[in-house]
Amino acid sequence: MYATETPKTEHALTILFTNNTNGEHDTCGCILNQRGGVGRRHTMVQYVRGLPPDDNQLLEELTRARTFLGDRRNVLLLDSGDVYFKTLDVPTYLRDQWQFRAELLVESYNMMAYDVVNIGAYDLALGFDFLKRLQEEANFHFISANIIDRKTDKPMFKPYVRMRKGGITVGIFGLVSGYMSLRDLPGPGNQKAKILDPFDVAEEMVRQLRPRCDVIIALTNMGLRDEEILAEKVPGIDFVIGGHGDPRAQSAPPTYKPFKAGRTLVLQTGEGGKLIGMLTLVIRNGSLDFSDASEEYELSRIQKLNEDLRQRIKEGGDKLQPGAEELLRTAERRAEAYIAERERRSKLVREGDQSFFFFQLPPVEKSIEPNQDIEEKIISFKDRVAKLHKRIASVIPPRDNSYRGAKFCATCHQKQYDAWVNTRHAMAYDALVEVKQEYNPECIECHTTGFRRKNGFVRVTDAGSLKAASVQCEACHGRGREEHFSADNPAPTESFDCLTCTRCHTKDQSPDFDCTKARHEVCAKN
After folding, report:
1. Most C-beta atoms within 10 A of its C-beta, which of 154, 237, 248, 392?
2. How far apart are CA 435 and CA 429, in angstroms?
């Protein structure tokens, strides 16, 4: 780490950060206890800043840091990009809806008082001109150092900002991947700009910022591998807060532990706004060479495990299998030794002269009370979406839906039908009505049968009809044609395998989904 001025006393700065919200403004409700939602994120951010609620036990993950910071509420709130959209390929029928949602997210980010947001690749999905309009409504900085005007060769956004918090001058610059060509993007205005090589631009940013800043942060939208290369290739960056792809997301459960590349710490938080990154810096005696004190904040978890072991031994008594008690006591001794060693090392950090950081990644749990002002905006957004698609449906000519419906299938498959009517598939459309999403095409697609498929239905107002509502037989087995019902050809019209299921049962929406088990339950197979 590098310093240009020496703080006279101990300083603390907490950097809260997110990446790849991907338009996920709220939980969809497909599973219980689903994480995410900007309303709940607002509650967590305010809590770290020392604002109410003061007694929310559901925010236990943040309590240690808040207690440590005391009155020093020096907080930066950053996002590394891909805020508004989840892809560059915007379906025509969703274009207006995604525009509404992007506007909602800017309003929500304003209410959370974000400081800086980097431009990610997906943020350009509706075009540069639309992004500029969003910028006009934002109270936070839009930054990008390597998106420049083709005619003038000047940055289209601020390349960096400098902010002073708690006696620390922080320089923050933004980068997007250099692999993308804006000329290839269909959005209005994208042809005005071009993307420079992010590695070359990063070197120039460090050259400009290093003499004027204590800490330099790169907000990047490049994918984890390129962000690691950036950290190694460009010295002088203290923290790379990245996004747009992290292979660790595929692990079960995902782990996003920060790591060093050269002298730079590289961090991400995963997709969908389910987690908030929280990096607290404590600077002593002017040193910006940080030790990692994060282990101290894992002690409570280990201590809880230790308490559970003691309880199991106490409750087990004579019921414990031979040798089980000794195994439990051995595990208990090892846990105690681990705790003692971590406490010893943490004490050296806390009471010494060395600067340190600690990192947390608290989840945005469903149980956290969301900010009510943001919740009201989300309700207004849902109403706006419903009105939009009902209006569109009113001018679309009706189309014959040649799907047969589950009751027709029951004439030959009564056993399977009887099993199906007691599954969540049979009540999928009702679930949308309950949360006022029955006119949302993004939800209808997986909660009905035949939406926007060949010979299916296209008007959202038809989603509740007898042959369309909920996930019926033909949603998985394919539309039944006349020949399907003949005695000579009883086979389904489409192949049916786990890929059929995982079109909707994604890792995010159905994290514990077991395809084989589900098929047996839904289809009543022996």
Report:
1. 237
2. 10
User: What residues contact residue 250 under an 8 Å CB cut-off, 6+ apart?
Assistant: none
Determine if the peptide bond prior to 53 is cis (ω within 30°).
Answer: yes
Residue 371 DSSP code? P
Contact 251, 309 (CB under 8 A): no
How far apart are the C-alpha atoms of 454 and 479, rounded to whole Å?
9
Give the pLDDT mean for 1-24: 75
Are the C-beta atoms of residues 247 and 274 closer than 8 Å to each other? no
314-323, 337-346, 498-507: segment of lowest average pLDDT: 314-323
Alpha-carbon distance of 432 to 424, in angstroms, equals 12
What's residue 212's pLDDT? 95
Cβ(126)–Cβ(95) under 8 Å?
A: yes
Contact present, 103 and 138 (Cβ < 8 Å): no
- Number of Cβ within 10 Å of residue 253's Cβ equals 5
Separation CA 281–CA 357 (nearest Å): 4
Cβ atoms 206, 227 nearer than 8 A: no
**Could you give phi then psi for residue 173, rounded to 5 degrees?**
-125, 160
d(CA 268, CA 225): 12
Q: How confident is the model at residue 217 (pLDDT cuts 50, 70, 90)?
A: very high
Q: Looking at residue 496, what DSSP letter applies?
A: -
Residue 119 tokens, joined: 């431009």
Q: With DSSP H G I counted as helix, E B as strand and the rest as coil, what are the percentages for the chain, rounded to 5? A: 45, 15, 40
Tell me whether residue 283 is exposed, middle or buried, using C-beta atoms within 10 angstroms of its C-beta: 0 to 12, 13 to 18, 19 or more.
buried
pLDDT in tens, 254-306: 667 888 899 899 999 988 999 999 998 888 877 777 777 776 545 555 556 66
- Total-model pTM: 0.84
CA distances from 177 to 90, 120, 160, 245 (A): 20, 8, 17, 11
Say how far apart CA 138 and CA 133 lie, in whole Å.
9
Residue 288's pLDDT is 74
pLDDT one-digit tens code per residue, 73-102: 689 999 999 999 999 889 999 999 999 999
pLDDT score recorded for residue 55: 47
Pairing relation of β-strands 259-261 and 264-267?
Answer: antiparallel
Instruction: Report CA-CA distances (Å) from 463 to 121, 452, 455.
Output: 34, 11, 14
pLDDT given at position 484: 53
Identify the CA nearest to 50 among candidates 18, 16, 90, 94: 16
- Residue 468 in tokens: 């369309």
Q: Are 339 and 262 in contact (CB under 8 A)?
A: no
